[in-house]
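agent: user wants the structure for Pentapeptide repeat-containing protein from Streptomyces echinoruber. delegating to structure tool.
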Amino acid sequence: MMSSGTRNGWLPSRFPPDETAAQRLREWLEEEGGLDAVGIDLSGADLSHGAFWESWFTGAKLVNTKLVGADLYRSDTQGADFTGADLTRCSLIRVNMDNAILVNAVLDGAELVKASSCDVDASGASCRGTEFVDTFLINTNFRSADLRNAVFEENSFKVTLDEETRLEGASGTVFGPAVIIEGQTPRELSGDTLEQWIRSRGGNLRVLKPARSVT
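agent: tool returned. relaying tokens verbatim.
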């Protein structure tokens, strides 16, 4: 039975300073179902280890919010601002993150499984040991990001990388092409050429060829 004012005994370690957002959280703690946080300002809150299954963070502001070990299964975070947020070991299974801002966010050890991360700015993000499994990474900006020891499993990998992107120990399989920026000149690499560039950065990713359609 759910305790009054908690979710199976869980409470935020720190409520957001924004009173509207704080009140929405308090109401949700008394309810069932997902959190409706569309467009509200959860910046500065500590929501670590919360179970936000099938919640709506669409267009929400989560700047410097802590979501360590949180579970966002099947949630919608489209257009949300996670700048500087801490999503270490966060479960992002089947989450829609399209158009989200993840600049300088921490996703170390997070799980992105069957998630969508299209048109996302993840520049400067830390994704050390992050698992990307069957996830759409399309027009995703990983410039200056840390992808060391990240694991990729048959992901779309139409991303932007640069000389500051860390790839040591990254492994698995991806579909290209990727845009590489060295100096001022962007170039698109795919197949063996992309594989070799990643290997030169200490990564071990195998670039798969798209399956041919049968006519």
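agent: one observation worth passing along. The helical segments are 19-29, 191-200.
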